[in-house]
Structure to design on (600 residues):
């Protein structure tokens, strides 16, 4: 079945970085664009950008109290008792977006990095315009992975859900708190592709011929067998093999006490976010995704 | 000229991890050995181990107030006004070591990791027994790099200087706060080699035939041209090329504003600690070392 969608005319692209304060790449680009934003200029829309959690950036921490990128669910924003630092920050960001873009169609692009060996990823929910936009990025940049998560409270809690349309760009591997020239270039390339596509959609320049691409849809998170900071770690056979095939019986964990532990799933999956530093505190070792192959079509 | 040394009989090997609280590999091994330390047992000496900064480990931070591994200089320990958390911790660690090993010959081994692509490194000062010990490790494990820093207040401020003999083991690349199975194995292999060599020295089993190896001696630290967190980052041509040759004129920095910046040194050097996360706050981009080649001999 074809995935097809049209788009409203996009009035504003809003790019955020520093949603996780120790992911330096987006923060660097925001600072770069504050000095010279000609890179972002397209004639058919305005492009704005902002550093979403400057306090966490200053502290070189993912967040100060709670993960900002899980605070944007409407019912949480409306919860009057939700007054942690990041909950307050999310409330203010959301209201600023509403005020600044009242009546406008916005595309929100949130820039992230991962310690996992995942390359360039477009993160999106499975709403047709978002998934189509992600697919159009991959169609233009074949090295990109499209990582689709079913629309849910989980996806709606992300900053990117605050736009009319929203995608995340996730680049890795890179340690937290570090800048890498190649990762900055990858992020810039992905941002440029998104801007070019938005402009072509707006101006009728985008190709309406159906095209087929593969993408990955989220299945599940896989926890360490003994909780966070236990004996088990990612097995060296799995380390760095994001998006490769994981077969039942393959080694996934190793520990001095637990020895080698194998994947007990019933079918082949693709592991992602393997050994992501930010997920240790949650006890999450990696996620699994399923490869999909679909035809996409942009409607007028 | 030959570098030669004898050793006193080593009574105790003391292994520390967690001197930097976000270097998880050493912390993991200390916890492993707390459950089963048979891996460390050699008949000619006792092996002890300890987690040196458990508070920083709990917080997943390099340190809480100041770098513990710069606090061990005698004159700083004697400074009655030095009462930051890590200065107090260093004072107590040093006194514990004095009390527990009074009259004993100790070999202190401090386990570290780096975000730089440096492989397995034995860090030492240029005191003959320490450099010879490091050379013997490389002679046994050719993949090891020996990284020698001239004995100075800098080397004496390190925890490893608190033993009769002292070396550091530094393994990378690995992000801060992360465990990698392969890095745990590298660290274990290096620790085992040090223990085996100490045992052979003690029991007369070590080969006294002179041997030649290459090692690297520290020249200088190279700062970012615009201070910490400025526009310049490590150029992609340099990233990950630790221990390779850096020629005058090679690209070392890139920034959106500053463009490409070249190495202006007069001679070839070898860059190390390239893009080490912990050195951002000091504004240090990498260090340079010089390749040396010498003959070593263990004296009876």
């Amino acid at each position: 079945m074809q995935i097809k969608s049209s788009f409203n005319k996009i009035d504003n692209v809003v790019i955020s970085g520093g949603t996780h304060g120790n992911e330096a790449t987006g923060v660097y680009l925001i600072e770069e664009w504050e000095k010279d934003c000609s890179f972002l200029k397209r004639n058919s829309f305005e492009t704005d950008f902002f550093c979403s959690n400057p306090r966490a950036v200053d502290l070189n921490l993912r967040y100060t109290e709670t993960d900002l990128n899980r605070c944007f669910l409407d019912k949480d924003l409306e919860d009057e008792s939700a007054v942690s630092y990041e909950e307050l920050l999310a409330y203010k960001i959301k209201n600023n977006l509403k005020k600044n873009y009242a009546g406008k169609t916005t595309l929100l692009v949130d820039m992230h990095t991962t310690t996992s060996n995942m390359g360039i990823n477009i993160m999106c929910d499975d709403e047709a315009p978002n998934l189509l936009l992600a697919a159009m990025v991959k169609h233009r940049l074949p090295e990109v992975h499209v990582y689709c998560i079913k629309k849910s409270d989980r996806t709606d809690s992300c900053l990117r859900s605050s736009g009319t349309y929203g995608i995340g760009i996730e680049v890795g591997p890179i340690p937290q708190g570090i800048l890498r020239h190649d990762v900055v270039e990858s992020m810039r390339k992905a941002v440029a592709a998104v801007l070019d596509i938005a402009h072509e959609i707006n101006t009728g320049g985008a190709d309406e011929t159906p095209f087929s691409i593969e993408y990955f849809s989220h299945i599940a998170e896989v926890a360490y067998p003994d909780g966070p900071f236990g004996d088990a770690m990612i097995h060296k056979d799995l380390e760095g093999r994001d998006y490769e095939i994981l077969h039942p019986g393959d080694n996934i964990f190793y520990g001095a006490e637990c020895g080698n532990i194998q994947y007990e799933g019933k079918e082949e999956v693709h592991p992602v976010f393997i050994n992501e530093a930010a997920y240790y505190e949650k006890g999450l070792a990696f996620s699994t995704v399923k490869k999909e192959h679909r035809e996409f079509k942009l409607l007028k």
Remarks:
- Chain B is about 25% helix and 30% strand.
- Chain B has one domain: 3-214.
- The longest strand of chain B covers residues 284-298.
- Helices of chain B lie at 24-35, 54-59, 74-78, 85-100, 128-140, 153-156, 181-203.
